[in-house]
Structure formats: C-alpha cells, structure tokens
User: Fold these one by one.
Assistant:
Number 1:
Amino acid sequence: MHEHRAAHCACMSLNIMMDPEPMFPDMYHPIFTDRKRNFRGTAKQYSRTEKPPKYYLIDFGLSSKYAADNPSPRDLPALGGDRTVPEFQGDKFDEESDPFPTDVYHLGNAVRESCPLA
C-alpha cells in the first residue's frame, strides 16, 4: 500500500480481515467452528504456519494518496481508532507529520493489542 503512495490512517483490529480458507479448506460452521459448514464431520484445520491465510485492510475512509515525487509527505493527523500514536499526544493535532510511519505504528499496535503474550 505504501509503495503505491497510499496511507490507510486507521490500521486497527476492526479494519483488518483474514481469509481463513487456506487454514480451513472445507470451511467451518459460523457458530460451531470445530465442525464443517454442513455439519458432516469435523472441519479440517491447518495452522497459520502450515497454510498462511491472507490478511486484508478494509475501510479506507480516512486514507490519503500522495504524489510519487514526494518521498516524505506531511499531513495533519487523521484521527482513526487508535489515538496512542506518539505524534498525536499533547497539543500536536495541528502539527503535520509523515503518515506512513503512523500506519506502521497503528498496525504494530493492533497486533500487540490483539495478540498479547501469555
């Protein structure tokens, strides 16, 4: 996405979707996830490392596209779901910053919050 000069500006867990088909070739029932969708047996399952799923970013409502000739664009913060970004703290809402590192922070923080170490 960043190679195409687009910044998402709201990379949070609600905007990340996974296609489970590689891990569940026969798909699973939406309520009883250990069963096949048609209830005829146990759903075949692989781990994420055996059959890696694809992840997709959705909801590009706050996203922006930047010119290819601008290697480090500056923009005012787009206040998405994650407001813990260091650039957004204090009274920095009127200061422009590079949106690409902010996307990386958002994504890393979404993973950290969704998959805490036990």
Number 2:
Amino acid sequence: MEKLGDDMERREGLIALRQIKGIGWHTIDKMLKMDWSPDQELTTELLDFLSTSKISKKSIEFLRGNWSPTFIRQVNEELKQRKIITQTLWDEDYPDLLREIAQPPWVLYMKGDPALLTDYLLAVVGTRRPTAYGIKTTRFLCEEIVASGWGVVSGMAYGIDVEAHRTVLKAAGKTIAVLGTGVDVIYPKNHRFIYEELIQHGTVISEMPLGTQPHPGLFPQRNRIISGLCMGTVIVEAAERSGSLITANYSMEQGREVFAIPGQVGNEQSQGTLRLIQQGAKCVTNIEDILEEYPYIPRQYQVKHKGGAEISVWNEKEQKVLQCVTTEPQQITIIIERLKEEMLIGEIHQTLLSLQLKGDIIQLPGSYYVRK
C-alpha cells in the first residue's frame, strides 16, 4: 500500500473521509477494523469487503471517486479558510467524557472556543413548546449553573434549548450548542442571531459533514453527543414522547446522572419529567440538588471584577480542603488524613477557618465540618 503521509495526514485523512457522502460512523469503523488507515490508498481487498458489508454501492462509488491526496488537502484547506476547528478521536484534546460513550464521533467540527468542551458541563434540554413555568425555571436554573462555574450544553432548538443558551450568554457563562446539521448550517434559520452569539462567546459543534441539512433522523444521533459531553442531563419540561427523553436515555446508558424538574401533574409538558422521576431520575428544584451529586468536584464560584475578568473565589488550598468537606459531616481527623501529603496541619486549620468566614462550610460540635 502506498503511504500518503505521516500521522498528521492520517488525521487529515480521517477528517476528509468523514466529508465523503454516505461514509458515516459505521463505515469508518469497518474500514479501520480492516487495518486500513486514512493515510493509505484504497485497496481492492478493502472495497470488496465494503461491498459485502451492507455498504451501499453509491457510498462505495463516492468513496472511490473522491479518495486521493488532493481531495484530503482540499477538504482540510477549506476548513482552515472557513475557520472551522476540528478534533478527531485520535487527538489528545478530544473531550474525555465523550471518548467514553459507545459511539464517540470520529470527527468533531466546531466554531468558537474548543476549550469549553473539557469544562464541567451539564446538559439542559426540554420541550420545543415550553410553558411560562418551563421558561422561568430554565432561566433560574441556568443562572445558578453559571454562578457555580459550570457550563451548559443544549441543542439550539426552539423552546427550552434556546432559552438555556440565551440565559447563559446573558449571564456571561459558558455554553455549547450541539447541532444535528453541519456546523455551518443554521437550524432553525431564525436562530441566526443566537448562532452568531454562540460562535463569539461559546461554541457550536457537530459531527455531521459540512453542509449537512436538517433531517429528522439526525437529531437523535446528535442527542448522544449532548449527553456524552456532560456530567449529567437536566430535563426541564418534556411531553411523554418528547425528543428530550432520548437525551435522558442516552445519559443513563452512558452512566451519567439524570435530573428532572417537577411540573404540574395535569400538564402535558410535565408528563415526561414526572415519568423520569418515577423511573429514578433525581427530582431537582435548584443547583444544590445537582451539585451534591458531585462532592468530588470543587465548587469554583466565579465573581466579576470591574474590568470584567473572572477569578475564582477560592484559592488552591481552599479548593483542596473543599474536596474533602461534603454535605455529610466530616471529622477533622479524616480531613487531615486525606490532606497530610499536600498540606501542613496548621495550613489545614487556617484554611478551614477561612472557609467558615466566607460562609462556605460550618463547624459542628466534635470538630466536624459540613458544606453549607
């Protein structure tokens, strides 16, 4: 087999391969399992294998007709010219949580800040036809998420999704929109303004090739990425057959937390969330109900300075101590034992006092400490 280049061209080859019409996740998986690499030419053996593997003749024709070093260069040059960032499953900066799911995207296309993908993230999704209660709750919850230093992932759809993005952007928080179209295709079309805002102050991502137009079958696939990027998924409002429940199911399959906002018993848009709660999703009414499920993650609340820059309220020592103090009372001897390799005993006592003065923890009788 003739090599087309080094590891960089292997990566660029994968990106170009994803741009060929009809070559989706499963086809790429089959090709790679044949010990073929995207820095190689196509072989008769590979094409014969694909033709007997339920890959359509059209897809194979598109592959045969496009695959060349010239095509690979053209695809990657176009992406650079259009300022579209790419991450492949082989890249070190590919999001670790997303890498863990059953079918992680081979390629992610994005516009905006790629660093947000590795932040602490929560998915906030819901019906496209929210009630006034649903909108109010979305705003309240997303403001609390921003204040806690976490980011919000949603799908830029009508209703709860776009309200979540709007609220986070207004609060100068971190938000990611996962599209079911190409990253260069705005859908719904009248969400152009929010799309532009997301590119400027957040991130828009997709696994779909550039130019991919909306199609009903693409959105369930998109939902696995929404949940896959996140520590947990919050369903605000959802009818009994809402697409948001697909995201909740993916979240459960991926071993992530599922949270549901309780709604009125007789309201159609609350039936999905109420059913989730019956099935074991955690009923939440505020951010504390969510954050207490992640006691191992330091709460890095953010504050604004006059210049607009953000800094953490807690210093490094305070963050270490807070990782040991949970919503269950912890005796000081246990805290010291956990931190003795990192901090002096005097530093631990001083830091505990500092956190008490800030109102973050409470000292109980018997030298027990608990998160406030």
